Amino acid sequence: MGLARLAELHGVATAFSPARGVTVAVPDATVVAVLAALGIDASTPEAVRAALERAERAAAERLLPPTVVVWRGADGGRPGIPPALTGLPAGTQLRLALESGQELDWTAPPASMTSVTPTAAEVSAPPAPPGAARTAAAPARGAGSAGPADGPDPARWPQLPLGVHRLHARAPDGREDRATLVVAPDHAPGPGARSHGFLVQLYSLLSARSWGMGDLGDLAELAAWSGRSLGASFVQVNPLHAGVPGAPTDPSPYRPSSRRFPDPVHLRIEDVPEYAYADPAARRRLEALRDKAAELRESVLAKGALIDRDAVWELKREALEILHRVPLGPGRHAAYCAFLAEQGQALEDHATWCALAEVHGSEWHAWPAALRDPRSPLTAAARTELTDRIDFHSRLVWLTDEQLAAAGRAARQAGMEVGIVHDLAVGVHPGGADAWAQQDAFAAGMSVGAPPDAFNAHGQDWGLPPWRPDALAVSGYAPYRGLLRGILRNAGALRIDHVMGLFRLWWVPAGSPPTEGAYVRYDAEAMLAVLVLEAHRAGAVVVGEDLGTVEPGVREALSRRGVLGTSVLWFERDWDGDGRPLAPAEWREGCVATATTHDLPSTAARLTGGHVELRHRLGLLARPLEEERTEDTADVAEWLGLLGALGLLPEGADDEEGGIRAVYRYLLRTPARMVGIWLPDAVGDRRPQNLPGTWDQYPNWRLPVSDAEGRPTSLEELAASPRLHRLLDVFPARTAPPGARPS
Predict the structure, then answer these.
(1) Which one has a higher pLDDT value, 125 or 395?
(2) CA-to-CA distance for 407 and 706, rounded, in angstroms?
(3) Buried b vs exposed e over 17-35: b needs ≥16 C-beta within 10 Å?
(4) Closest by CA position to 360, among listed 380, 386, 384
(5) How far apart are CA 213 and CA 308, in angstroms?
(6) How far apart are the C-alpha atoms of 697 and 207, rounded to whole Å?
(7) What is the pTM of this model?
């Protein structure tokens, strides 16, 4: 009983539900391990009692919760008193230190002067941390006025500017406490008029100018062409985070070294301004590298080779080493210095890790002990010794940031209302740059995954260390804020992989199977508030990948804050009723609607049953082939029947290309705010980019976009493809929700 109470106080669940009506207890050993990762000793009954006593005493003595959230309406009206601040002792002094440096003083009034009606969001939010204070704040007379006069009511909460501020409380009995105060808009920016756009894995889209894989020059071209010629409003790409160097490199974009900085493998070398100013000898070497890159490109586009990220990076790295020796002009040098100053310690740490990885390997846990600490004297000495290499890696981040910005400008100039949709992976590699530089923020010895469920009895372990919710709260969510600010600086929108992780994550102790994990809860209100605040500052739409098992209330909480969901056609059924496909009008409006994703079969593979045959060849089926075929055929037939009944399949059920067009006609019948076109669908590609459950058995993350016959298709060929244009004829230049009226 004591262990369960201790776990509850620290947000660790002691049971989970793998299916409706089924509850499974978490092993005590898992609970003990997870608590240890949070700095809590629960290894013995005596330790549990002592830890529980400390936790309950600390909770009882707290004046403030770790984080207080204030949602500010679009009308700018004065918000009510935050519910977390409605129980302070009368006379408690509050000092608010704003981001701007201004300080305001307020005093808690008697409880009789406080009247708070909780919002729907507050009613449905997870319980406040034990011991969280419930206080009311009132303006102190004299020092620190918050703008216009507040009127005679001393219990009114001030209208504070958006931002992440600090609260300091002193009670009449002498107790003091501190908290982070997040003031956020009540909604993230919306996507504007209903729109459509492309979804693509950038590496898979090669052009006649690529160096063996798609790059940021190709992204700019795709945005400019699809925006101007096809009326597309966005292009969504895979995470472009910095990868972990190695031989071979893990090609998955969802297990990066750093989510804070981009990967220079995506650079278009010829678009680096210094390329034009290389001396003759350097230019000859660059031209030789371009020729080798052309061979790589042709091996993929014409000879059936897989995308070889390592080979591409070997060529680009040598080219970038050459360009690093080309002096920057005064203006360029000033811009680079400004970038370094803006990025500060975070960039220096990232570049230092990259430089140390060149010497000691990319797994920092195997480095000399003193170098495992980014603040040790030995690491400081290494920074001095490796100054040139640190500058090189910092320069690469700057160049990549410039080309990301250029792609964003190309999208806006093409008339895209949303622009480039960047993707935020759910975590980072445990041996990478972020895990080294931000060790205090990550839970050592833990990995993020998924519990067993009806579709995967063994659960999943993704090999990504989770953030510690307590460390995030103590830091005022600084690591999270910095991450969001960095990726949003060049984004028209942000897709968040496994957005349910803002609420809770499944932690798996090292050495344990995924079945023996536990859910750990985060302060979802704070996580959402920071997300909405940073999206507002960037003017960016937010899309959450909310597929799979989602706990009750999560989709509603996300929707309330303007975070769009993700709806995939084949999963949209009446699961609480007869299980049949949902009619278009029954879909939710607040989503990106699409036919597939990078982890799922293409629409052509789904319609033909090719995905079943592929999984059979690789030994991935859990049931006999004929059972899988029968079920899949019935599923597809049911959808085709609905498409035909709605008049969306004039080509007939046996026309594969017509079936793909019918699927997208159907998506346009839904009220979804954004409709995403999986770019490989436009040319009939039948292969998934990633096949979960495989490693070497399938070329995950290494396939180029290909046509229905499996022939790789370049960006130039896509632009001229009759099949693509026949599909895009389904989409008007600008779409409006069904039933919408002109404004």
Answers:
(1) 395
(2) 24
(3) ebeeeeeeebbeebbbbbb
(4) 386
(5) 8
(6) 27
(7) 0.92
